[in-house]
Fold each of these.
Amino acid sequence: MVERFQQSGLTRKAFAAQEGVARSTLDFWLYVASQRPSPPSVLFREVQVSLPAAQPGGWAMEIESADGVKIRCREALSAAELTRLVRGAKC
C-alpha cells in the first residue's frame, strides 16, 4: 500500500478514500515504512575467470578481491560451489 501511495501522486486523503481505508491506517503504514532501515545496497563487481594450465603443486583456481583477499583452491569449483564460497566470504 505504501509503494502504491508513493507512486500514485495522490494526497493521503484521496488515496485512502480510493483504497477504502481510513487515512489514519495509511498514516500508520507510512510511519512504519519510514522507521525501517534502508536495505543495504548490493555491489556487483566484474570478475575475470581463467583456468591456468595445471602445474604440479599449483592452484587449480585462485580468486583475488580488489582489496587483496585471495581464495585458492587445489581443485576447480563448480559455479554453485564458488557462489556458496563467495557469498559466505567477508571480502
Amino acid sequence: MKTKKYYDSNPEAKQKKKAYDTKYHSSEERKKYRAFLNKINRKAGKYGNGDGKDASHTKSGRIVWEHQSLNRARNRAKK
C-alpha cells in the first residue's frame, strides 16, 4: 500500500516505473521465461482449464500446483 500511495502522489515516478517495466517485460529473457511457464502449464493440462491452479515455484526450485490466490498473494504487499 505504501508503494501505491507513493506512485499515486508522484505521477512522474509512476511514468518512469511504467517505462522501465515495459522495457523489462519485453526483453527476450522475460519472453522466454513466460513461454517456458506457459509450456509447463500446457504440458500439465492446466492452461485455460479453469481449475484455479498455478505453477508455484518452491525455494528448492521444484514446481508444485497451488491455488492461484495463495500463489499470487505470497509476494505482494500486505493490506
Amino acid sequence: MRTSVCLRRLGGERAGEVQFGRFVANPKVTVEAVVAGWGEHTARAVAGRHVLAIQDTSEINFRTSPERRRGLGEIGKGSGCGLLLHPMLAVDASTGHCLGLVTGQLWTRAGRVTIPHQQRALADKESRRWLSTAQDAKPVLAAAAMVTVVADRESDIYPEWATVPDVNFHLLTRAMQDRRLVDGGSLYAASARWPVAGTARLELRARGPQERARTAELTLRFGTVALKRPEGADRALPASVTLSLVEVVELAPPQGVEPVHWRLLTTHAVTDDASAWQIVAWYKARWLIEQLFRVLKTQGLQLEDSQLDSADRLLKLAAIATKAAAVILQLVQARDGRGSEPASLAFTDSEIEALDTLTPQVEGKTTLQKNPHPRHSLAWAAWIIARLGGWNGYRSSRPPGPITFRYGLEYFRAFAAGWRAKHVCIP
C-alpha cells in the first residue's frame, strides 16, 4: 500500500502512520462505523440548546490517470474522479460555536446514470441524501431543545418539506425553483408583491481565498406561502405544505460582484421584522460548513493529496479526516477565549488529562507566557494545541490558524496515545 501525505498528518510519527495505514486497510473498519462515531461527543454537547444542523455536499477530487483510477467514480460532471462527502455540522444557534459533526454520507459513483433525473424515484437519486441525513440526525440531536436543519438550494425538495419537519425540528433552505402555490400563483411572484419590511447592513464573510469579506445593504420582505404538491410527486405526500418565505435583496452591490438575493423557505413562523432577520442570520451560518471543507481540503489536512490506492480506503480516510477537520474548526473558533465551551466538546477525559500534563511544558515562566484561559475550557485546550503547533503564545502575535492547529494536533495525538498506554499493565 502506498501511504499518503494525509496518513502522515493523521498518524503523526512513522509508527502512527503505519498503524493508521493498517486501520484503513482493515475490512472490519467500515465507513458507516466511522460516520456513526461522528456524533458521540455531539449528542451530549447539544443538550438543551437550539442547534443549527448545517448540511452540505463537497466533491473530493483525487489525482487519477486512465491507468490508475483507484476505483473512483466521476465527479464534477465528468471533469475528474473522486468521492462525495455530505456531512452535517451542529452549531449553537445563539453563539455560532461549532458543537461537532452529527452524521453524514460518503460515496463514490459506480458509473453514469442513463435514466433521466425526472424519471427516477427519489430512492434512486443522490438528492435523497438531504432527507436521509436529516432523518438520521434526529436520534443524535434528541437532547437538543430545538433543531433547525440549514441547507442550500439543492435541498429544496418537496418530499423533504412534507416528511422531515417534526415538533421542534425545523427546516431552513434557500429556494431553488419558482414553485407553484395553492392559490395558482408562483413563489417568486408572491414575494415580489409584498411590501419592503425593512433594510439592514449584513456582514458577509469571505467563503474562500478568492473572495473578500464585505458589507451588503439588504432589503427585506417576508410572508407565508402554501406550496402545491408538484405534478409527478408521490400522491401519498400531502397536497400542500405551508411555509414562511423570507427574501433579502442587495440593490447596490459593488461593481463586478454578484448581488445577494436569497429566498429563504422555513418551517419557522415568521411574524415580524426581527424574526425575519433572525432567519437570515441562521442561514448565514452556512459559512461554517464551507470552512469545514476548506480545512479538510486546502487549508489544513489537504485530503486531496492522498495517494491511497483504493476507493474503499480513501472513503475511510475521508471519514476520519472530516472528524479531524471539525476539531480544528472548533479550536480556531475557541482560540480567542470569547466562548465558554468546555474542552470535553472536542476531547475525551483521557485526552484532557494528557493536556493537563503538557501544560507545564508549553507555558513559560512569566505571566504573559501562561495559558490565560480557564482550565479545562476549550479555549484552554486550543492554547495548548496551538503552542504544540509552533505558536509563540503571545496575544500580540497573529492568532494561530488551521495549519498551526493541525501540526499541534499531530504532536498531541502521538503524546496522548503514549499517555493512555501508561495505564496498561504488562504482566
